[in-house]
Amino acid sequence: MNKMVCAFLLALLASGIAFGSDLTGTFVKEFQGVTRFEMDSSFISAELKGSSGSAVKIEAFDLPKSVRVSLDKSGGTLILRVEKEGLLPIPSTSARFVITLPASADCELASASGSIKIEGMNGTKMKIRSASGSVKCLNMSVPLDIDTASGSIGIGDSDTGKLLASASGAITLENSKGDAVITTASGSISLKDIQGAIKAQSASGSIRVSRFTGRLYLDSASGAIFGESVKLSGESTFESISGSIKLNLENRDSDFTISAKTVSGGMAIFDSNARGDFHSGSGAWALSLKTVSGSISVQ
């Protein structure tokens, strides 16, 4: 019987199943056969990188004694959780996770205040939630669903759809292709070297676009909207209540049917100056610009 029990336990360990929640300090764990990775890193920062291999390698550095880490594997799903023991405040440390995982693995990641950096993934799902920790994604070929309360979001080299939201953190999207929906309450939005259709909305933060090709639907309540080296390839809309709109387009004015309106700001649209309502052109693409008290400039 003892031999049978030992053989059973050895088989479980070989399959990569982890028991308990007593991991702390510095450690390294490896798992095989993982197709889905879930993580709640709490206040611990995490760096994740996709690889062509089939193993998941988790390296933990300098975890404080006040936390415990659980690693549980069921089927193809591996779950990492960080829990704090007691009510004592957690000291500031250099604690972090460095995680290598199959690039094709689906991920669902969460953090309270620890930052999350992830690169080189090409699965079918990437969902990230953070309270105040920043999120950075690089070289991604997976649809992104990212939401933070006050942490910033930075995306670079992404070629799939993106759903990005932050209450007060800034959002930056660079060197990317594909459609995106971006919302923030008070954080700024920056788009640079982008191809696709972008819908971006900010309550009080500015929206800046440079070196863009595609369609834009930009809405800012009190922040200004700036566009530099923008080439529109379809219907586009720019709206602001109290912020100005300033666009430098690579298109000709004959590409558009232009509708512009401002209540108290002036307008300079291509070669025309106007106030109030402005309509011009008969191009294939509708270009709509609206502001209440800000000015409108299109060149």
Any idea what the shape is? elongated
Q: Classify the oligomer.
A: single chain
Strand content: over 45%
Rg from alpha-carbon coordinates: 24 Å
The ordered string of helix (H) and strand (E) elements is HEEEEEEEEEEEEEEEEEEEEEEEEE
Q: What is the number of E strands?
A: 25
Number of helices: 1
Instruction: Tell me the span between the first and last alpha carbons.
Output: 84 Å
Can you summarize the main beta sheet? Answer: 7 strands, parallel, barrel
Helix/strand-derived category reads mainly beta
Percent range for helical residues? under 10%
Integer average pLDDT: 90
What is the strand arrangement across the widest sheet?
A: 18-19-21-25-22-24-20
Contiguous runs where pLDDT drops below 50 for at least 5 residues: 1-20
Describe the structure.
- There is one protein chain.
- Mean pLDDT is 90; it is low at 1-20.
- A seven-stranded parallel barrel has the order 18-19-21-25-22-24-20.
- The longest helix is centred in the N-terminal third of the chain and has 14 residues, at 2-15.
- It has one helix and 25 strands.
- It is mainly beta.
- Helix content is 5%, strand content 60%.
